[in-house]
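Recall that a protein's primary structure is simply its ordered list of amino acids. Everything else, from secondary elements to tertiary packing, is in principle encoded there. The following example makes that idea concrete.
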Amino acid sequence: MKSAEKMIRELPLNVSDIARLVVELTEELGERVNGLGKVGMMQLLRRVLRLGVEELSKQEHTVSFETAIWASVEARSERRPTTRRDLRHYARRLLRVDGVAGRPLRAMSTRECREMLQSAFGGSASSFRKGRAMLHSVFAFGMRQEWCAENPVARVEVPRVQEREIEPLRREEVKRLETAVQQPEHQAMKLSLYLLLYCGLRPQEVARLRQQDVQPERGCVVVPGRCSKTGGGRVVPLRRRELLKGMRLRIPRNWAHRWKRLRRAAGFTDWQPDVCRHTFASYHAAYFRDLGALQLEMGHRSTDLLRSRYLNLPQVNQAKVYWNAR
């Protein structure tokens, strides 16, 4: 007994405490200790202690939330510049929430994540959804690095976003754009406007196109995966090809600035970002009445979105004028 007391003299435990722990440990081991002698029991207990220390060290291994979020952003360095810019933007907004930057990633709870998102993005359901996706990816990355054991964001509810109905451009509004693009300072945007209105491309897709992607000889524009929003390529017919006659088939530099200037020159002060694409789809559905073809041209996975967003169609005679049908 004296030798045992001497061995544990530096510990904040006495012999009774240690005996109690050993008894509890053997009870937890259950049938594993049956029939073991002193040597076997000591070997088993040493193994349990070693594995327990290793697991405890593993569970305690983590990094700060700030380190994790920037490491997650850096891991996606191959993404498009605009995507990387958005990731950095959402990372900075999350890190501006008081007290979160230094929090150990492993210690963060679902409640804490929900409150962080509410503080950073509570004013907008759409921003909340994007911020949640960003935060979810940080913990997913952290799990792969063994900085945390679970993803607490998975239990944060995803708010529903009520999409605003977008009215297609009226014919006179389209005419204003087509008139403005004839001005010398805006003529470099002729092809871009054509692709927006009559091919339904997204603005970001137009800005990323290369000259070889527009192929009048084949009667189509190829939207490669590097250009599209979803990463999947598609081929869109070039309708109203008479508009391409004499047009310089090149997308100008500084595209976003030029597009904004053209809209202003056409008298638009309030602009819905997807209105040209919506206009294309609405007039396409009203005149051609082929949602399958429209789905492929717009790059949608199904016709469900088309059915839910384009039921308020313009009249057929308006669609005929838009497509210059004879």
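The chain has two domains: 65-155, 171-322. The radius of gyration is 31 Å.
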